[in-house]
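Quick one - first record:
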Amino acid sequence: MELVKITELTNQLDISSRTLRYYEQIGLIQSERLQFEKYRFYDAYNIERIKQILILRKMQISIKEIIKIYESKDMTALVNSFVARIEAIENEIEALSELKQVIHRFMDAMLENGIKHISALPLLYETMEKQMESIKDEDNSKEISYERLLALTEQVSAPIDLNIVDLPPMRVITSQLKDTLESEVEGFWEYLLTRKILIGTPGSRCLFEYQTENGSHVMMQRVDYDLVNESPYVDYEFVGGLFAVGSVYVDDDLALFHNKMIQSFDDNSNYEVDYRQDGLLRHETLAESVISIDSQREKLNIYVPVKRRLPRAKHDDGIKQIFHIEPSEIEKANPILKEYKIPLTEITPIYHPDYKVLETNEAEFVCWITARRLSTNVSVRLPFRVDIEFKVDKESERFGYGSDEGSIRFYHGNHMYGINMENKADARLSKEAICFDQPLLGNHVMYPYLGKINYNEYNTLSWIVGEKHFAIIINEEVRYCGVNFSYMNADLYLQKPETIVIGSDGQGKKYFRSIKVSQLKTTPKRIIKRGELTMATKQSNNLLPVIHRVITPHYGENYWFNGCAKYVMECLGETDYDYHFFAGLTGDSFAQVYSYDHFRGDGATDYFLSERNDTNFIEEIFAMCGYASTFVTWNQLHNNKEMYLQTLIAYIDKKIPVIFNYWGNNPRDKWGWGVFVGYKDYGKTLLYMTSDIEKPEEIECDDLFANAPMPGQEACNGWIFVGEKRKSIELSEIYRKRILTLSNLLKIKTRGYCFGAEAFNAWAADIEQGKYDHVKPEEFDDWPMHTIYVCNLATNSSCCHEFLERARKLNPDLEFINDIHELYDRMRHMWNEENGKDLEAIGGGFNITLEALQNKKKRSRIVEKLREFARTTDRIVEILEEGIKESN
């Protein structure tokens, strides 16, 4: 006689061991215990009966009716049960009608096969197995299968009623052994009894059960913190947290109930199932016995870990601005819980800004670029307040590194808050704006002319991100006050604390006399409502284990595609293929670019992709590394959204990110290359990293595919899937090939754009010939018209050397690389370090103004400097071509 262990049977039939024990307890089945075995075993007869019970339960025949069926000596009870069930579903919707027809089929099968006694009931199961695959519904031609029966059962089941509870942290001991982590339930139970540990009563939230990932059944008992655990069983600190709780009878379908609990959160706006990065639950689902109102039926509470869902990323039109309100009224409505006075000597500089504390007890700060900041080393959660007493020195502003001279800003996580922003070298274009990223949602908001400060004297800033008001107070004047922000309706006390970091932009000196950070008081919101969570579609999520910023602007990593490519290669285990590798391979860090007609992007990569049907460029870059890849254009994505979305999900599940260069209706106002690193709600929401953000942000697929790309961007917008490695290529050979083809790159010229010396000459010619003479100040946009090309030459002359040095080390015979290195370094000095003769010094760099481009005398100096860049680039090409001849 062949016996099957209970653990194997639960996997085969997808039924819990607890349900089997319950069936045995009420006399429906019997198990056997073998000598020296701690598990139950079942013979063929009882296995068949279990299958029969499962089929009857799927047809919603109650346990009481099933007991009557097996107690009956003929088929009367079975027929009566079927008839009663048919009558019960006749008034239901279409799904119930389908279920009724299935039951009719079983009755017909009994009559056709002459079933007249309960002993013939196994034929019911055999009929199910043999006939269900081929039965057709004559009315609608739907195939009736076992899977269809399961779907109908789920469809007609009553909606589940859930509550949200916050389980407290507790010390627990489990049935898992310390040395093997295997669960030993019976021995564990004996240990609890012999140690006289107070075992949790039903509903006390002290005794739980759960299943591990490998299917082991584990018991978990709450114990006192002072218990000395000398037992062989594992104890640990259970962290608790939010759980969704639903009640179910043991004889019901526990797996179905558990799935419906998880599915009920798919589109819920308040809560979501709490998954870890690997896609598993934060903690295994817990089961707890509770007191049942039916003494004949055992009942359980099922606990699924959940968390508060952040508001959807979208523009918030509900914000209301408040006028004529006094600072005292705002402060009273948003009281301080704890205030931190930041010692200026204990501030931590980030990325080496110029920062020093003077003898006057003031701190002097020059950031040069936005990435260089000051950490207060104080972390607060929403709501919070920041108070800064500061002075901005007007005379030291140069507009040489950025367009926000004079700004004072701070950061809370990924969110920026700033005043006196969006300023230009041309004062007519300055906005003196208040700018911020809306708390939680992250979309960028700007209010021009509200952030004006007094230069060369001390100002006070109080920025209150409060529970009742969002307010900016400058020099005791309320410049902005708003209510009805989305974050004000969230459970603020559940938000993660973030460090306050001070920042600015540009070369101008800022002075600080005091900085204070305050945690504001908050009122806990109890949003635990019975029955509010009743949705029913499947949910799945995943997040890559590798999460970090794509690029670091502080290191000159200004071409985002190369950071994305490095990100993918890192996940594939390729450590040699970093940002500088790809920046050299694409030509981004070598080629000056210039467009004859319209803005085409930041560097060579964007320019190559700006021509229609030229996506082969990207695929060739990865081919140089030995990898297959596919660039899917926007049109292809739009025509096959679901197919490519499922492909993306498959990539994330394989722990491989997908590169993108298309944003759709992006509510966060962030643009450029990025990588998808995860998904939620089975792909309804995608998680991405871009630029220098340090944790993933979200975009909904509906927003992603909402709008067509801008004219001319159809070819460069799309997704990039990097596939398998087809061959291994020597690293030295990759670098060598790039160097030997570099002269060709620097001579590219098409109808739409040009590279190298021709780019500098075309740029100079447009300025000299008066391209901007008729441009009005309000029409002048310095970035696409001029400073993008300055950024291009500044980045390349400063950041190509890493690639050149590696190429020289790997190919020592290419001695001419040293000359190339010197010429690019020469261009770096020509840009910004040439004793008053450099491009920045003559007003043609990042500090460009429309007046300088329209004034013939001023622009003539700029034109001559650009032509000097062209001559230097020509010399680079000459050395490359001479070196190539010698190397051959």
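second record:
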Amino acid sequence: MNWLPTLAAWPFAAAGLAAAGVTLLIHLLNRRRPRTIEWGAMEFLREALKENRRTIRLRDAILLALRCLAVLLFGLALARPHFAGQENTSALQPVHLIIAIDNSLSMAFETLDGTLLGRAKEAATDVLDHLPPGSVTSVVPAAGSSHALRSAPYAKGEKAAAAIRRIKIADRSTELESMIARIGQVAKLSADLPKRVVFFTDLQNATWRDVAAPERIDSEFAWQVVDVSPAERDNTSVAVMTVLGGFAISEEKTRIIATVRRSGGKSERDVEVQLVVNDVTVGSRTLELPSGDSERQVYFTHAFSGQAGPSETPTESIVAISVTSDRLPQDDIRHAVVPVFNRWPIVFVDQLGDAEEDSNRGRLGETWPLRRLLAADAAGRTKTTPTHVSPSQLRDEHLVQARVVVIAGVRDPVFIASKLRAFVESGGQLLIAAGGEFDPVAWNANAWLGGRGVLPAELDEELEGRTPSETQEGLNPWLLDVGGVLDKALFRLEGNSPEELLDLYSEPLFFKHATVEAPSLGQDAVRVLARLQFVGGAEQREDASKQVPLLLERRIGLGKTLMLTTGLRPQWNTLAKSNAVVVLDRIVRHLLQNTLPIQNSETSERIDVLVPENVQRSAISLYRPDQTTAEAIVLSDDTDGRTAAVIPNALGRGVYRLNASSDDSGDVWQFPIAVNGRPIESDLTKANDAAMAQFAARRNVSLTTFGDTVSVRDMFQPHHGMSWWIAAIVLALLLVESSVLAASTIRRSATFRSPSLPIALPIHTPQVRG
């Protein structure tokens, strides 16, 4: 601890010290030395004067000390000393003022006199005019900023006001913990001054929902929270936009779902919802939203147009959903980047291949239901012909042009297992299904290889169950364990309730499947995504709780393998004949989506984008939304050692575009990424009054409404402070000096009036020699 006080205005203390020195100098200069006079008649008085002279010298020394100390302390009082970290401070004492301004999305709400952020900036600037002399200021954007925190506080109010004016809206929520951490950083910049925090906010519930919890605000500093919220709140926003599958196939209709949400309002409101693709409006709907809190879903379908090129390389379309503008226009639109493939970049491998398949004779490969499901339009007509080969026909060029391989009904993968392993290790996605001629012994021998193969787990040598054509006795079917899949995103269908999904997934019956060796399931890279539940007859009740894996997942290198332990055609199950067949479509789309780079993101202080190897030596530039000026981009390595372009401070919604160019060929790589804010920030509901009252009752915290005078002086507790105590000591010293002088004067007067007393000579009496 620092036991020495800090001086707010040290020149006054220095002046007091100088004045004390001058007082001492004047005393020394005016001091008169006694003169020696040869006078015999005065010899008898020498002994009488010795005692009187000693007393008078002591009195003068005391008076001199009192005068010097009084002058010194008077200057010290004007310097306003204080101890570092002192909580009870004077209103005249300088402080380190930390101005925190909520610049989250909700602060862009427009009122008659401007936005809420404009209100906060105006009030914050006014606070600077009421700071004690010698104070310093730090400015903290609560939701983040593109500018780094300043390494030193502002000593001048004009520079602090300029920093306040530079604050812009960040399309994200304000997190109290993060803001307090930033305040703690800037507080360390002035350890010798007491800290005061003034936070301007709209008290949005998204920020203050847990404010009553002690850990939410745990600061040693005095806080003043200024409420700049509007009197009325009404906002309509595009809360969610979903492109089913996350990609599109050229000329095939893709479903787009938008969730429009309203918060507040006292009357019904009609809003127009528009679908915009590549800056062209392609669809429109009108919604009637009731007052208060409500939401509606809007469905669009659109057939995207691709461009000529390899089937495995998509082009990108920019999709936007917008609603009629309101007083918070920033959240009236959401963007998405949709990769568009010319055709499905999938290779199907089964026991027949395209050459041996004949639908007229019912000779169909095991992958036929999935191929038909993906390639047919809403009317059931086949629009595209996917690549379909047998194991012997699979070539390296097929795998080069594929992102996903589906293999089903194959008895033995002996000739293709190594190719499939290399394909997955390089980032490809593989779906293995049983059915048809599937032989678990052959697959173990050539595709498991003690974990070095492409199988996700080792299989039992015997298949379990019988198909209807293999038995004349009663069937003992299995059902999907619905309770174990409803919490997984892969099985959750947009627009369906849990009850509807329960009915949907309870439809299919499973007659035959491969089983898995239990020890191989203990590997870290293997996950069970779905299980089958046995529901046999009464004689098998002891096995009624038995479950076996249905869908397995294993990561291998940069890719992933999924295995469906049953078949795809109706012989092994009724999945292809039920409505639950849609889950096969989901699985394949999920695998294909895994091969795509992330091109849709929430606002963030940093977004890493993997850069292709062929452009890593090129100059990469970034174009932000609504900006025509490019900025240079820095490359760095991600956690896997891959080269990534870093987009810093992506705090506004819209489409960011990366371009890689060289002097020779110009643009060689373009990568758009859509950035959107979190929907919770569009909910303008104010924090609970009781919670805020509890918050305001906490020590060192006060709550103020916009329009009231906000002054740092109001945050001080009423007391005198060290300066007042020093001033009191100066007054006491002056009183003591006056008393000493008065007593001396009274004694002298009494001596001259009394004839019976000896004459009291002054101290500077000449010395007499006889």
